[in-house]
Amino acid sequence: MAAGEKNMNEIIKEVYNGSIVSVKKIIPIDPEVGAPKIIEPPLKVQFGVMIGYTGSVKGELVLQSTDAFFSSVGEKMFGMPVEGEMLDSFAGELGNMIAGSLSMHLSEQGLTTDITHPTILKGDATLSGFKRALLVEVTYPENQSLSIYLLLNN
Prior knowledge:
By secondary structure, this protein is of the alpha+beta class. It contains three helices and eight strands, in the order αββββααββββ.
């Protein structure tokens, strides 16, 4: 089936599945993945990273958690704590790796995508203007969690 023939439900399913595969592949901690939930705008983010998608899929991937979670992932990946400006840089790069992996997954499903550079979200960021939004909660040991938001504009 060509990309143009896929309906929106199939695209959402592929974006969801690809997001889970990508998070499991990139973050070296065994997660427990919750069921997807539809959310209404606006989306409030205290700390996270946002990466845009263009092509067959138009929207944003937002990864939200605490700075402590991103720091612990960095420590797990690199063997040393990630803090300060380095933490922002790491969060952006982690988002890039997950978004790039998702883009590759979508390509394998016949969906053409490009990703934008990461945007770090800190403080009291409020996101709105998206048509559909899916939330997937991923939990990790020691009561840590990552919220994956799939904001779709097509």
